[in-house]
Amino acid sequence: MAGTTKEGKGFVPKILAFSTNNISDPGIDLAGSSHMHYPPSVMVVSMPCTSGIKPGWILHAVEKGFDGIFIAADGEECAYLPDCSERASNIVKNAQALLQQNGYEPERIKMSAICSVCAEPFTNQIKAFYQIIQKMGPARKG
Amino acid sequence: MSDRRIGVYICHCGGNISDYVDVEKVRRAVQDEPGVVVAKTAMFTCSDATQQEMVQDIEEQQLDGLVVASCSPKLHLFTFREVAKRAGLNPYQYTQVNVREQCSWTHTDDYAGATAKAIRLVRGGIARTRLTEPLQPIKIDTVPRVLVVGAGIAGMRAAVGLADLGLAVLLIEREPVVGGRVAAWGAMYPHGKNGRQLIARLNEEIKQRENITLFTCAELVEKSGSIGNFNIKIRVGGNSGQGQEIITARVGSIIVATGFDNYQPVAGEYGYGIDGVLTLAEYKELLDSTEGKLFRHGREIKDVVYVYCVGSRQQSGENPNRYCSRYCCNAAVHASIEAVDKNPGLHQYHLFRDMRTYGKYELLYNQAREKGAVFLRFDHQEPPVVEKMADGKLMVKVRDLLTYSEQIDIAADVVVLVTGMVPRDNGSLVDVLKLPLGQDKFFNEIHPKLRPVETVVDGVFICGACQGPKNSSESVASALSAVTQSASILKKGFVELEPLIAQVDPEVCRWCGECTSACPYGAIEQVQYQGRAVARVNEAVCKGCGGCAPLCPAGAIDLKGYTDEQMKSMIDAFLKEIV
């Protein structure tokens, strides 16, 4: 990525955002249609439901070069699972434990419910998370 | 390396993508990715010509994978699945990469960053496609019955349309009577028909059709199931007290036609609250209920001032209505023609910001001017001021942009605030249906041009003024569009659902029952495999949420299309160095 350096001010964190096809994806699409800006090193991958994210993927992403993982969760709106929020928070807990076991800070994962029209909340959240990760520095030291 | 043969097509989208992303650079960066045999850019990948080219490439190059990098899959997923099908390629071996909504449009401020991101996203799509396998959609039988929510002109017309196509209809209305707003109206443009009579005739039509069941004082309170087969609960008889009853039914699709509310000005807004200052709706009521001349407090009305865009196109305030309400210019001009026909010699002044009597309503505007109406244009930053005078008349002061900002004072008997449509408070319905609202708080369609009555909830359609300001004929047109959409699903008798469901690897499964208890649909059952118990997914019942996959302690469950291998190779591809 242009201008990427390992440490310091020029550090451009890479963030992987997990989104869902029917709930948060339309919200993130709407941010784009409204030309709201967030850093281009944020990449979104879509799933049917937040509850399907495997903690192992998160560890893999951090090990391979992502510095932060953002989960744009279905929250209460999930059409599949009434207890989606609870399941998702368990996944986050397990993934945080997995990161910690492997020497990464658990704060590199953030989850927030993003609805199908949550363009502005998504943009604000992802920018705030980006700054937090920027302060933390790259996930892989040395 | 890969033995796959993948075609990659990167869209300019006219300039929507290529103005912010170097699409040629993206093409070069992905053309040598493992498995890629065709890599092209196109001005519009969705155009007939490019679709044809894709079909030709797939056939001639014997492609077994397709990647289209263009807009959101919400728009064209099905377009390109059809392209794949036409070319004999399994549609589940195609991947849509969103480089517009989630790339070019979000990073209009960063050409290099957006280009790099697009390269990463397309590589991710290619990596995912390399690991696709041909899948067959799951067929579900549909129920040939439709629930229509709201019996205004749109809902009533939809019910008749559905019934005539041989579908049963459950029509529910929250109020005790049908007809909605139109039932209160008199003469309407352009057909000159009377709203009350129009609704009465539609009501007759409904009564004549045996396959329409109408419930008034009824609300939808519960919905479960999915497209083609929803289970619904309707509460009849109001929300409290005696005579309340819950009716359950199965329907194949749902059409929402709950209409609009009139904008209600706050006290003091353009003099609202002063006697003689009326909203458009109040003025229409006066017109429609008056035979002969218009009077107010015993005095003949001689001067009327119309102030346009009240409650629309607001720039400030708490939750401003930023949108143009669209129908009000026509409605106000039409009302003014009706008024002058009742009171010949009536002086009428239209104070507007922008006049939009679109389409053939332009004729109305000319007609109003021919009948003596005067049109004055004001600057929204210097809006007209309405005051009450000592003699009981009203005084409107306005600076007219058409005469070089001359200050004009107009004495009036009535000031009409041309108020627009606002969304209804549909809170409980939104909770039940999980329908998304747009920025303006009306129900949101998937795409205003490409999929104008479909919502992100499969099988739930919207029409009429609940999705945005519309006049009655536009409402009816969208109602008929929702009818067509519903019928195209339900007349076929089945829907095809995504085969992207969970799968258990019996070699890895050690049967612990975790997945079975995690599935609220009961889709995972115990079966015997080589003499031992393992879990198996029932394809017809699995919803494809993937909720079971992370819970398997053995890691034996994958969601098709989102397998461990696919996700990890996508992540790797996202991160690959860009030279």
Automatic annotation (TrEMBL), chain A:
This protein's record includes keyword Iron-sulfur: yes
A Pfam family this chain is assigned to: FlpD
Domain F420-non-reducing hydrogenase iron-sulfur subunit D: start-end pairs: 15-137
Any one GO molecular-function label of the UniProt entry: metal ion binding
Keywords from the UniProt entry: Iron, Iron-sulfur, Metal-binding, Oxidoreductase
Keyword Iron listed: yes
Domain of life: Bacteria
Record-given protein name: Coenzyme F420-reducing hydrogenase delta subunit
TrEMBL record, chain B:
Domain 4Fe-4S ferredoxin-type: 500-529, 533-562
Obligatory cofactor(s): FAD
Pfam family, one: Fer4_21
GO MF assignments: 4 iron, 4 sulfur cluster binding; metal ion binding; oxidoreductase activity
Protein's UniProt keywords contain Cell inner membrane: no
Keyword field contains Oxidoreductase: yes
Highest taxon of source: Bacteria
UniProt cross-references to PANTHER family, sorted A to Z: COB--COM HETERODISULFIDE REDUCTASE IRON-SULFUR SUBUNIT A, FERREDOXIN:COB-COM HETERODISULFIDE REDUCTASE SUBUNIT A
The species this protein was found in: Desulfallas thermosapovorans DSM 6562
Family of this protein: Belongs to the HdrA family.
Keywords for this protein: 4Fe-4S, FAD, Flavoprotein, Iron, Iron-sulfur, Metal-binding, Oxidoreductase
Name this protein carries in UniProt: Heterodisulfide reductase subunit A
PROSITE patterns, per database record: 4FE4S_FER_1, 4FE4S_FER_2
